[in-house]
Write a structure and sequence with these properties.
about 475 residues; alpha/beta; five-stranded antiparallel β-sheet
């Protein structure tokens, strides 16, 4: 057994943990990162990056087919081998040599193995070879262990060895028939990807797809999937799963119907990676999501948590399960740790330098289906639930000059939610081809609480999809316009 002392210990070497470590190291604190798998984590190897590569070839091909001239030049189908090769390249063939070298260049220590909290500011790491290292932090321990796929209690499901998102994004063979259990982002994206790669796909969702988005988002994605040959079953639940001697899986649904598949992907949600983290040693419950304040300090009534030393960033705190939000939290937490270590005041005011205020009502998200779904802030339903007096502004993106140039038969919709009392935006949703790049303008408007009257002076270029901003403003009404009925 060996022991080492650092200022900051970061448990989890994914994108979020790396960002925490980078901020504290840049702030002059001796920092070590502990990782049991690949440095770079879920996003680099099994989520954000490989999934988008699997989706990109199909989306690019579909986009070309919607442009006269380019459509006539498209004479073949997707080269699956080339797509998988590009996916392997993006993931560095699941090797983290480059990421480990970056840690070294940034002055961040790396200990490989499974970490467990064994006391206040103490982490014990067991290496793959059984060697044990006790790490002690002088200032902070940060938990950035992320989340894992949640498997439902379905009779026979474990026995058929279903895919999780990790398996779907790293598969080396495309199944002839794929059943997807779930209706969220992962389910929709992987249904789109595997359909484009040649699988016959069936989606089984208990409720409408993308249920936490504006209703039209799920409706348009369902229609697009079905147009591309995907069967979408909304309403039934899977009750049993069985794989026969030939390898065929039969899923029985609660309405009595069955679905046959060669592989099953389960994408119903996530669970916190805290089951074997030693949380009980500091008065927390193993397996729980970690509750934090806006500076990402873990909250709880255990005396062991006093002293502002334990932080949780990324999925593990269940605030916003998105890589970019986790990295945002990481920057806030890292800077807060450096500030507290220096004994200077933390800026924990709303939108302060050391807090993750955006997690509450300004979270941007893109679903990379075809069409894309890009949203930020509140939906109409969530805004009403929060007590806002709102107005909904809708616009058909197909009416834009930029859309008519981009694609024949463009299908899309935009919605903006306006807080009528302050006349600022609360939420924006875009659905359509290439709308992801519209999202940051909406995010800036919401985070900056830019008044509607000022947005009139942000002139969109023509002919682009950005002209949708002008059309949404026109739907609200020009400042000084006297016809109140139009407002």
């Amino acid at each position: 057994m060996s022991s080492q002392i650092y200022d900051v210990i970061v448990i989890g070497g994914g994108a979020v943990g790396e960002n925490v470590a980078d901020r504290t190291a840049q702030g002059g604190l001796r920092t070590v990162l502990v990782e049991s798998d690949l440095v770079g984590g879920e996003c680099s190897y099994w989520a954000c990056m490989p999934s988008k590569v699997l989706l990109r070839s199909g989306a690019a091909l579909a986009a070309a087919r919607r442009v006269p001239g380019a459509a006539e030049a498209v004479t073949g189908s997707i080269d699956v081998r080339a797509t998988l090769k590009q996916r392997d390249s993006i993931t560095s063939n699941w090797k983290d040599d480059g990421q480990a070298k970056w840690l070294e260049s940034a002055g961040i220590g790396l200990v490989r193995g499974h970490a467990r909290l064994t006391g206040v500011k103490e982490v014990t790491v067991t290496a793959p070879d059984g060697a044990v290292t006790v790490l002690t932090a002088t200032h902070a321990v940060v938990v950035s262990t992320g989340s894992a796929a949640l498997l439902p209690d379905i009779d026979g499901l474990k026995e058929i060895e279903p895919w999780t998102s990790r398996d779907a994004t790293s598969a080396q063979q495309i199944p002839e028939r794929l059943a997807v259990i779930g209706g969220g982002v992962v389910a929709a994206e992987m249904a789109a990807a595997y359909s484009s790669l040649g699988s016959t796909v069936t989606v089984i969702a208990r409720s409408a797809l993308l249920g936490n988005q504006e209703p039209f988002a799920g409706e348009l994605i369902t229609a697009a999937l079905e147009e591309n040959g995907v069967t979408v079953l909304v309403g039934p639940s899977t009750t049993t799963a069985h794989r026969d001697a030939t390898g065929t899986v039969t899923l029985t649904l609660d309405d009595g119907t069955t679905v046959a598949a060669d592989q099953v992907l389960v994408a119903i949600g996530r669970t916190a990676r805290t089951h074997d983290l030693g949380l009980d040693t500091v008065g927390l419950n193993p397996g729980d999501w970690l509750v934090v304040d806006d500076s990402l300090l873990v909250q709880g009534d255990s005396p062991a948590l006093s002293g502002d030393w334990l932080y949780a960033t990324g999925d593990v705190n269940h605030r916003a399960l998105l890589t970019h939000q986790g990295k945002y939290q990481a920057r806030a937490a890292g800077d807060a740790i450096v500030t507290r270590a220096a004994g200077t005041p933390v800026d924990d005011a709303h939108w302060g330098a050391h807090v993750a205020t955006a997690d509450h009502a300004a979270v941007p998200q893109v679903t990379f289906t075809d069409p894309e779904v890009a949203s930020v802030g509140l939906t109409a339903a969530s805004a009403v639930k929060a007590g806002y007096r709102i107005r909904i502004l809708d616009y058909d993106l197909a009416n834009l000059g930029g859309a008519s140039v981009l694609a024949v038969g463009y299908v899309g919709k935009a919605r903006a939610i306006v807080d009528l009392d302050r006349e600022v935006l609360l939420g924006v949703t875009f659905v359509g081809q290439d709308v992801a790049e519209l999202l940051h303008s909406a995010t800036v408007a919401i985070v900056g609480e830019v008044p509607i009257n000022r947005l009139w002076h942000a002139v969109p270029s023509f002919p682009t999809l950005s002209e949708v901003w002008l059309r949404l403003l026109e739907a609200f009404g020009r400042p000084g316009f006297t016809d109140e009925a139009s407002r």
